[in-house]
Amino acid sequence: MPTYEAMPRFTTDLDRLTPEQRRRFRQTVTAFVETCAPRPSALASA
User: Is this structure's pTM higher than 0.85?
Assistant: First the structure.
């Protein structure tokens, strides 16, 4: 189940990216999501 909704402006802008820009965007999103994931050490102290 998606936890977000892609707005039309986002989809339009994403479609206009070059392949290299799209690759860098996906790398950045992946890195951001990894920083948001709970860390095992943080869960152990909770």
Answer: no
